[in-house]
Design brief:
This protein folds into three domains: about 5-60 and about 105-190, no CATH class; about 60-100, no CATH class; about 195-345, Trna Endonuclease, Chain: A, domain 1 (3-Layer(aba) Sandwich), CATH 3.40.1350.10. A hairpin with a 2-residue loop joins strand 12 (about 265) and strand 13. By secondary structure, the protein is α+β, with helices and mostly antiparallel strands. About 35% of the residues lie in helices and about 20% in strands. It has helices at about 10-20, 40-55, 80-85, 105-120, 125-135, 160-175, 195-210, 275-285, 335-345, and strands at about 5, 5-10, 60-70, 75, 95-100, 175-180, 185-190, 220, 240, 245, 250-255, 265, 270, 295-300, 310-315, 320-325. The chain has a five-stranded mixed β-sheet, sandwiched between helices. It holds the Pfam family McrBC. This is 5-methylcytosine-specific restriction enzyme subunit McrC. InterPro entries: McrC, McrC_bac.
């Protein structure tokens, strides 16, 4: 099975199926049996499948503002534009109007990302051919500078939810794109640790939501255990957990970490990253306001090629346990599921 940065490519697909429910639909199921040389080859196949599905439904359309010189009035008259037309001795009117068009931002992002994948050397020629064929249906859609997309501003509703997973993949692809200055060709780095970290966190959360509904898995905020009446709360950072599991009176906070190295070297001694430990300890301390010892924490690292990896725990004075664990993503997915099953029986 092909690997990318120590993770089976097929496992990245399985992680995506947890992060995005759309991938569990029938039209994507065949992908699980495919072999992929690298993660961008996988993304090209998912986008091809997803866009084919979109085309059957019809591409999303929005009202897009246009300004055009016409012989008859359409929409609103642009006075300044019309004056310029008259100065140029043209008899046309400058009109502003809204057109219900497929040339909207969602489709522009899809088209521009597909073109980037087509220009990527490691995407197989057959998948490039499929993408080129699909792009014929995007003739009325403009390409855009992907660096200019403000991803946080994208909003999805009932009519556009089929785009959500595809645009999330586009974000993964785009954030790994480098635009060369010599020929203007698109080149891609390997799938970045930052992107894998986001996927890793979402995968773990959705895994426990699906397989352990009784644990009420959530990614929630923790309030600071301070006297708010006399404290300046604006200077305190938000404490947002990756995964929080609840069972009876106990709570387990999981902080998912995807690093190139899971441990730091301090005076020839292998130790947990200081910032990681302080962070999870702060989560536990601030949630367990009554010092009951019923709140535990876990640093869950994606396993690397290091010989020494975290697999131990410490117990705080109040009885809270901080676990250090690793999840080996470089094995068949059924084994990954068994590891995650075992973690909730710590």
């Amino acid at each position: 099975m092909t690997e990318d940065k120590g993770i089976f490519i097929r496992n990245i697909y399985y992680m995506l199926t947890y992060a995005f429910h759309e991938l569990r639909q029938n039209n994507y199921e065949y992908i699980a049996g495919e072999e992929f040389e690298n993660v961008h080859d996988l993304f090209a196949e998912i986008l091809s499948c997803g866009i084919s599905f979109l085309l059957k439904q019809g591409l999303h359309r929005e009202y897009v503002s246009k300004n055009e010189s016409l012989t008859t009035l359409r929409g609103k008259l642009d006075i300044n534009g019309t004056i310029r037309e008259r100065i140029s001795q043209k008899t046309k009117l400058s009109c502003e109007y809204d057109e219900y068009s497929e040339n909207c931002e969602f489709n522009q992002i899809l088209k521009s990302t597909c073109i980037a994948l087509i220009n990527h050397n490691e995407v197989k020629s057959q998948r490039k051919k499929t993408l080129r064929r699909l792009m014929l249906f995007f003739n009325n859609v403009n390409t855009i500078n992907l660096d200019s997309v403000i991803w946080k501003r994208l909003r999805f509703d009932r009519n556009t939810r089929t785009y959500q997973m595809l645009l999330y993949l586009c974000y993964f692809v785009v954030s790994d794109i480098l635009l060369t200055t010599d020929r203007g060709d698109y080149r891609m780095k390997q799938f970045s640790d930052e992107n894998m970290c986001r996927l890793y966190e979402k995968f773990i959360l959705e895994f426990y939501k699906r397989h352990y509904p009784e644990l009420n898995a959530e990614a929630s905020q923790i309030d600071w255990n301070v006297q708010k009446e006399v404290s300046d709360m604006n200077v305190l950072p938000i404490m947002k957990t990756d995964v929080m599991l609840h069972f009876a009176y106990r709570t387990l906070i999981i902080d998912a970490k995807y690093y190139g190295k899971t441990m730091q070297n301090n005076f020839n001694k292998r130790t947990i990253h200081s910032n990681n430990l302080y962070q999870i300890q702060s989560y536990v301390y601030n949630l367990d306001k009554e010092h009951t010892g019923n709140v535990d924490g876990m640093l869950l690292y994606a396993k690397t090629q290091e010989e020494i990896v975290p697999n131990n725990q410490v117990v705080l004075n109040d009885g809270n346990t901080i676990y250090f664990r690793t999840l080996d993503l470089n094995q068949p997915f059924e084994e990954i599921k068994k590891q995650l099953d075992h973690l909730v029986i710590v």
